[in-house]
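Narrative of activities, Objective 1.

The group set out to show that a structural description can be obtained from nothing but a protein's sequence at a throughput compatible with the screening campaign. Below is one input-output pair from the validation batch, recorded exactly as produced.
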Amino acid sequence: MEKLKYRIKKIRFLTVISIEQIVLRIFYFFNNNDELRMIIQKNRDYLKTIDLFLPKEVYQKNDYGVQRRIYEKLENEIINIPTYSDFIVFLINKIFSDNVNYLEIGVSVLKNYLQINNGIQNSNIVAFDINEINPNFKDLKYLEKNNNNLFYFQGSVLSNEDAEGFKLFFEENYDFIFSDALHEPHAVNSEYQLIIKNNLNEKFLIYYDDLDFEGLEDELKVIKKDIEKNIDKSINFYTFSVYGWIGQNEKIHKNGILTTFNLEKIMIENKLKIYNFKKVF
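Output recorded for this entry:
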């Protein structure tokens, strides 16, 4: 009986991701953007230069928060449909151009982090993660490219002590923050209060992955109100659907953005459409 349930669950999963892939192929066929397409190709070419992001012997010692089902697909080739890595590079290049202070909270094996390094230039790219750095990429200085500076800080989003240490580690404010650590409302609120709230530049963009998790979208609404109270002006909240770091090998993710920028206007001006993109309020 358990084997039957597992097979039915797997068939349902494969059916869902197959249907999603068909829908996305159709959507981006009719909504193609040359700049995004070039970013996608550049990122896919870069991924091919990495032998393994997380060798089996390393994974057995530390899973870096990667579930077994994700690990089994981690090194698989990704089709040319946008992932959040592609969209993030597009947003940074289009809005900021260069000289960006980028913070990624929850870098895991560095798969997204290194694609950002590959796609932007003249920027500070800061990693914050509870784990020691992936031993495959321990020499960050060697990995620096496009005149970027790479930084890695080990700490917990739930720790006041780590947050204080992090402020001393990198003392400048951030333009772009990607939140992909602990996907629980209390943890997202904690990282906001301890790491994000008082470390934003006047114009900023905070990008959140995995709003499919229960309570996360509501938590972002709470954070939005607190930011507006803190800076005394309104900000925008957008949601949309996009592939994560293993692309078509899993379901699409609901992502969200809190920002001072008018992304609707920026996307219209650049003739860009992202699946299910909408302004929340």
